[in-house]
Amino acid sequence: MKKIISLLLTLIFVFSLFILDKPVEAAKKKSKKITKGMTSEEFEKINQTIDYLTKKVYAKSLFSPQENEEMIGIKIKLDNELLITQEPSLSQLYYKVGNLYKLRGLKSQAIDCYQVILENFIDTPFAIKSQRELDNMGVKIQLPSENVTNEENEEEE
To answer: Which of 20, 41, 88, 94 is the most buried (most CB within 10 A)?
Structure first.
């Protein structure tokens, strides 16, 4: 009887190792995907969704709750992606999302998107466009490079 019980316990232990190993492998695959950042398909899907929502704004159509949720989800994805990588192509998506927020009358969210571009993607063409949009909105932003120049000028005086 003891042999049967010990054999069953051994089988259960070995079986559980195989069962538990699969979720661990799946989690490893997911974590590898997360560290690599956004795929080109995800980038393109977000870009198409932003374009679609922008067209709805220009057509003066109302957003459905799902579309509002998509818009919020896109901003969250971009913010999460920014934590992983500062890929310059993100500046285009941030700019488009900022414009979408501005068109919908969500000024503070638009300012946030433009500010992210100025802080993280200053060497891209979208930084100049973002600065122009902020100026048009009456928002005065001092760039980090301007802070250094002002401090140097104060030290010289």
So the answer is: 94
